[in-house]
Protein 1
Amino acid sequence: MVEVLHQNWHMQGFTTDKENGYMYFSFTDSVVKVNMESTMIAQVHV
C-alpha cells in the first residue's frame, strides 16, 4: 500500500517503471516518485 500524505487534491494518473523499480503518481498539484517498496523518493509541486 502506498500512502501519500498532505495531498489536497485527487490522484490524476499513475504509471510504473519496472525496469528501474519506480512508481509515479500524478496529483492535481504535484508528481510523486516512490520505489517498489512504497518509499517516497521525490515529490515535485507543479
Note: Residues 11-45 form one domain.
Protein 2
Amino acid sequence: MAKTAKPKAQPVTEAPAKILAIKGFDENLACRGFIYEIGQTYTHEGKVIACQSGFHAIEGHPLDVFNFYAPANNRFCLVECSGDIAREDESTDSKIACAEITIKAEIRLPELIERAVKYVIDRVTWVNGDRAEGEGEGARSSKDRGAATASGTRGAATASGDGGAATASGWQGAATASGWQGAATASGWQGAATASGLQGAATASGDYGAATASGRWGAATASGRWGAATASGWQGAATASGWQGAATASGRWGAATASGDGGAATASGDYGAATASGDYGAATASGTRGAATASGDGGAATASGDYGAATALHATASAHASGYEGKARGVEGAALHLDERDTNGKIVAVWAGIVGQNGVKPMTWYRLVDGKPVEVD
C-alpha cells in the first residue's frame, strides 16, 4: 500500500504588533500633501523605509513630534501603526515608519504634554531623597515648601507639597508640581513641566519644551524654540515666547500670549485674551467677549466668539471679527474683516476694508450692521 505524504506543518506567524504613536499634521490634518481623516485606516503599498517611505509617527517621547511639527498652527493625533515597521538605527528621535496606520483621535496640547510627563515618569527609577542626578532617575518631595531636583537625562522631579518646587534640568526631563502654589520647571531640551495646584506655575525654557498649568490662576511659560504653553484653569496665563511657540488658555478670563515669530496664541474661554506680538503670529479668541490682538508684521487676530473683539496693531496685520456682534479695529494700513450674523448664527453679510481708506478710521471699533461697517464703542 502506497504511503501518502503528510503535508508539512506551516510555521505559525503572529500578527505584527500594533504600536500606539503620535503623528503630527498641518492645520488641515495633512502630512506631506496628503489629507487624512480621523477614524480612517490607510495602507502603504511597497517597501517601508524610515524617513523615505511608509507612514511616519513618533513611538517614544511624545514631544519628539515637535522636531517635525511645531506646536503652533499644527495638529496632533493618536495613531495606531501596524504591518511592517521600520526604524532608523542612529536616529536622535523615536520616529518609525509603518505599512498601515489608523488615525484614532486628535489630541490637544495639554494632553500631549501630559503624555510627555507620563512617558518620563513611567520610566524613571525613584531614588531616596529629593535630588536625582543620574540618567533616568527621579526625585520626590512631599513636604510643604519642599524641593525636588532631577538633573540627569530623562530625569523626573515631583513636588506634591504646598509651595513645593520641582526642577528637571536634564534632556527630556519632567517636572510636576501638584501642591498649592507649586512651581515646576523643565529647562532641558524637550522638557515637560506641569503645575496642577491652585496658583501653580509651570515653566519650560528649553527648545521643544512644554508647560501646562491646570489649576486656578495657574501660569504656564514656554520660552524655548517651538515650545508649547497651556493654561486650562480659571484666569490662567499661558505664554510662549520662542519662535513658532504655541500658547493656549482655555479657562474663563484666561490669557494667552505668543511673542515669538510665527507663534500662535489661543484663548477659548469666555472673556479670554489672546495676543500675538511676533511677526506672522496668530491670535485667536473663540470664547464669548474674547479679545484677540496681533501686533507683529503679517500677524492675524481673530475673534470668533459672540461679542468678540479683534485688533491689528501693525500696518501689515489683519483683524477678523467673525462672531455675533463682534468688532474689529486696527492701525492705518491694517486689514479689517467683519462678519454679520443673525441671532441664529447664520452669516448674512461680510465686509473687508483697509484702515485709512474709504473713511475707515485708525483704532476705531467697527461692527457690521445691515452690511455696512458702523463705528461702535
Note: The longest helix spans residues 109-121.
